[in-house]
Design goal:
InterPro entries: SusD-like_N (IPR033985), SusD_RagB_dom (IPR012944), TPR-like_helical_dom_sf (IPR011990)
Domain RagB/SusD: 322-521
Subcellular location: Cell outer membrane
Helix content: 40-55%
Domain SusD-like N-terminal: 77-219
CATH topology of the largest domain: Serine Threonine Protein Phosphatase 5, Tetratricopeptide repeat
Shape: globular
Strand order of the largest sheet: 4-5-8
Keywords: Cell outer membrane, Membrane, Signal
Structural class: mainly alpha
Length: 525
């Protein structure tokens, strides 16, 4: 009965997974056993695993932790506002095992893993129809994704199989090598079991998502098997990366979007699904499953528009001069003004004088200075107007839910696949093939194409930034391109290489005294 109650609590803790056939039904302990044993209710079993995907956009865990330690995102202290050492320490790489956002990230990924194990345990008891096998493969994918994130961030994880449901027993602790081997094995098994795009409803995991994750493991294989910071002693899998990307591109199921910014509009599901999105994560504020309040976090208090009042805008995060100065500002991905008449601001990077929807030059809230966003800021004490703001995910000016975002999230998309293939080709010496992939993307985006002499690892790194900024890719890219430890704006010191991995949180040790800390950090006592 305890196991039945556990799965009941998990199901009760999530809402409808919008736009799929994964729906919540309220259970009690008495009828839980019958419902769990009924294969007609399999969607309910997998729903908690799918909710983990939405948590990847958390501003209290994964997204914030993974982006704020890079040059793409900073949360400067602004007077009495945003005055948190946890933000600052992530940005300056002074984090340790007590950082709350690193703790939340660890917890989020392991909760996702546990939810998958619970779902797999109960589905294993059902008759194995094609539908059940498909759902099993989907949940196994989500489980591998949680492992991938644990491996990428922490380099280790407590591991137990779904058959090991006695959570009082100590788990096995997987090393990075064990995690990588397990992930590849799992993905190779489930790829044939997963439906192609169109074979299951929008929002469910498909074969392309598993292939993309496999390509990412291959792309980072040298990092996962090598020694920081350059990883040159690691094994490479460039050919496997290219081959896996070929499978996705040549499937013909995805096409690069001819309108970049339509991928990030508030009502973006149909366009995402008809173009390049490989793994969509669905949000719907009307159902209580809204996403990160993107514009709320970054816009100034006085940039009110539509249903967004000054109380909805928090004047928080910005990007850095290090990232801002890499841009050719004629690149359409830098700025777009399609919503300016209803919001007052452009999409993309916001710099310079800001205006209201009526064209009035705005001033700051704290003293009436012109609201001119500047590239420079102080992470310790910024003025209200300092820092280039970013609006990657467009708001709905008429929304009834200004405290959350409505945009679906393209967690994986075809543009990234082209960029992964280009990088792998370049690293193995196929400069021509890499240039073709880069220019295929740039020409589709309306950016100037590159010449052969322009192409370098630096150019590929920058291209990934132009295309994927604020999409949870930067930390992984900075590590692979040996950028993570470099000094940068407001982080004047070179980071010690051990900090490429996050520390294991203190709370993890409190829960299990068998766990060990990552090298370089203070050992647990």
């Amino acid at each position: 009965m305890k196991k039945i109650f556990y799965i009941t609590l998990l199901i009760l803790s999530v809402g409808i997974y919008s736009c799929t056939d994964l729906e919540e039904e309220v259970l009690d302990e008495q009828n839980g056993s019958a419902i769990i044993a009924d294969s007609e209710n399999v969607g309910m079993l997998v729903a908690p695993a799918y909710t983990f995907l939405r948590d990847l956009q958390s501003r209290g865990a994964g997204w914030l932790a993974l982006e704020t330690c890079t040059d793409e995102v900073a949360f400067p202290t602004r007077g009495a506002n945003w005055n948190s050492s946890a933000y600052r320490n992530l940005f300056t790489h002074d984090y340790d095992a007590s950082n709350s956002y690193i703790k939340n990230t660890w917890n989020s990924y392991l909760i996702g893993f546990a939810r998958c194990n619970v779902a797999l345990y109960y589905m294993d008891q059902l008759e194995k129809t094609d539908e059940i096998n498909e759902y099993i493969a989907e949940v196994r994918f989500v489980r591998v994704l949680s492992m991938y994130l644990m491996n990428d961030c922490f380099g280790k994880m407590p591991y137990r199989e779904y058959t090991e449901y006695d959570y009082a027993a100590d788990p096995e602790y997987y090393t990075r090598a064990q995690i990588v081997a397990k992930m590849i094995s799992e993905l190779e098994e489930i790829i044939p079991e997963l439906a192609e795009k169109g074979g299951v409803p929008y929002g469910r995991v498909t074969r392309g998502a598993a292939q993309t994750l496999l390509a990412k493991i291959y792309l980072n294989y040298q990092v996962y098997t090598g020694t920081a910071p350059e990883f040159t002693d690691g094994d490479t899998k460039w050919d496997e990366t290219i081959s896996t990307c070929d499978d996705i591109i040549n499937s013909g199921l995805y096409s690069l979007a001819d309108d970049y910014w339509k991928l990030f509009l508030a009502d973006n599901a149909d366009y995402m699904n008809s173009t390049e999105t490989i793994l969509p994560i669905v949000y719907d504020s009307s159902l209580g499953i809204g996403g990160i309040p993107w514009v709320n976090m970054t816009l100034d208090y006085n940039q009110a528009f539509g249903t967004y009042s000054t109380s909805n805008l928090w004047n928080g995060c910005c990007t850095t001069p290090t990232f801002y100065e890499t841009w050719d500002q004629t690149d359409p991905r830098f700025s777009d003004d399609r919503l300016k008449s209803v919001t007052g601001f452009n999409l993309g990077l916001l710099v310079g004088q800001q205006y209201s929807t009526s064209g009035e030059a705005l001033v700051t809230k704290d003293g009436g200075r012109p609201l001119i966003f500047t590239p420079e800021f102080s992470v310790e004490n910024s003025l209200e107007e300092e820092g280039v703001r970013v609006v990657k995910y467009a708001p709905d000016a008429a929304t009834s839910y200004p405290g959350a975002s409505q945009n679906d999230w393209s967690y994986y998309r075809l543009a990234d696949v082209y960029l992964m293939r280009a990088e792998a080709k370049f690293r193995k010496g196929d400069t021509g093939g890499a240039l073709t992939d880069i220019n295929t993307l740039r020409s589709t985006r309306g950016a100037t194409t590159l010449n052969a002499g322009d192409l370098s690892l630096e150019a590929i790194y920058n291209e990934r930034g132009y295309e994927l900024y604020w999409e949870n890719s930067r930390r992984n890219d900075m590590i692979r391109f040996n950028k993570y430890c470099e000094a940068r704006y407001e982080k004047e010191e070179v980071t010690d290489t051990y900090k490429i991995l996050f520390p294991v949180p203190l709370t993890a040790y409190d829960a299990d005294k068998n766990i060990t800390q990552n090298p370089g950090y203070d050992a647990f006592n």
